[in-house]
């Protein structure tokens, strides 16, 4: 997979970044936002585990030496739960015990601090390629329907169904927040640049067309709040 394609895929991913030093965390988060669409940043391993369990995370980027729960323990718990989420660990340590423990966690990379940004970028591209190669860019919506994030098409009963720009924006917003209800106003802001076009009837029209393509029950309406996508 070419670097440009890898960067395009990386842009669609959600990263969980864990670093206890505030200045470093803020600076790296700014860099990550240039490459990725959504970032969760926290300062300790315990909070990181809670964030991971409550949200869809594509890539983990974590320091090793953290309060409450180390980065090694955090990733170990994820692996114990059967999750193969690509993980990159960061550390000032090059000691053999740390390296030996880290190799058992099937990491994408182990980077030594202070960070070299070109190495960080390379590791993130490698992680996105791993996701792509394993088919994790194809999300199962129900028994006979999938969404290919890379190609931006719905796959239904072996056939490819094209989506409009607004339908793509809607389904990807809902999938990024698949464990949560997305507020109606947020949906309108993402789909329409011109607020005058963002009417309730216009949103319902886009929703109905998308539902016709992915299944009537695929998108759940939470009255007075917003919408949530249901995946298998």
Task: Please name the defining characteristics of this protein.
232 residues, alpha/beta, Rossmann fold, Arc Repressor Mutant, subunit A, 5-stranded parallel sheet, 4-stranded antiparallel sheet, Sig_transdc_resp-reg_receiver, WalR-like, phosphoprotein, two-component regulatory system, transcription regulation
Summarize the structure.
Helix content is 44%, strand content 22%. By secondary structure, the chain is of the alpha/beta class. It folds into two domains: 3-133, Rossmann fold (3-Layer(aba) Sandwich), CATH 3.40.50; 139-229, Arc Repressor Mutant, subunit A (Orthogonal Bundle).
Note the topology.
Layout: H1 3-11, E1 14-18, H2 22-35, E2 38-42, H3 45-54, E3 59-63, H4 71-80, E4 87-91, H5 96-103, E5 109-112, H6 117-133, E6 138-142, E7 145-148, E8 153-156, E9 159-162, H7 165-176, E10 182-183, H8 184-191, H9 200-214, E11 219-222, E12 226-229
Helix pairs in contact: 1-6, 3-4, 7-9
Given helix and strand content, the structural type is alpha/beta
Shape: elongated
Rounded to the nearest angstrom, the distance between the terminal CA atoms is 28 Å
- Give me the Rg, rounded: 19 Å
Largest sheet: spatial strand order: 2-1-3-4-5
- Average predicted local confidence, pLDDT: 87
How many helices in DSSP terms? 9
Tell me how many strands there are.
Answer: 12
Q: What's the CATH C level of the largest domain?
A: Alpha Beta
Count of domain modules: 2
Q: Which architecture of the largest domain does the CATH hierarchy give at level 2?
A: 3-Layer(aba) Sandwich
């Amino acid at each position: 997979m070419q670097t440009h394609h890898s960067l395009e895929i990386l842009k669609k991913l959600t990263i969980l970044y864990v670093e206890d030093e505030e200045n470093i965390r803020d600076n790296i988060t700014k860099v990550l936002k240039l490459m990725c669409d959504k970032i969760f940043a926290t300062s300790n391993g315990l909070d990181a585990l809670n964030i991971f369990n409550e949200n869809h995370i594509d890539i983990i980027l974590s320091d090793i030496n953290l309060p409450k729960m180390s980065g090694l323990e955090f990733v170990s718990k994820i692996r114990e739960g059967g999750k193969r989420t690509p993980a990159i660990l960061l550390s000032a340590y090059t000691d053999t015990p740390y390296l030996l423990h880290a190799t058992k966690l099937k990491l994408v990379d182990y980077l030594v601090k202070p960070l070299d940004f070109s190495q960080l970028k390379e590791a993130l591209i490698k992680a996105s390629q791993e996701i792509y190669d394993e088919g994790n860019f194809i999300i199962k919506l129900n028994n006979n329907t999938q969404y290919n994030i890379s190609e931006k098409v719905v796959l239904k009963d072996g056939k490819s169904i094209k989506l409009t720009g607004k339908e793509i924006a809607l389904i990807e917003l809902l999938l990024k927040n698949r464990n949560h209800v997305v507020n109606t106003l947020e949906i309108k802001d993402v789909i329409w640049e011109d607020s005058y076009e963002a009417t309730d009837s216009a949103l319902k029209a886009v929703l109905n067309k998308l539902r016709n393509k992915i299944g009537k029950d695929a998108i759940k309406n939470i009255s007075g709040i917003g919408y949530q996508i249901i995946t298998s």
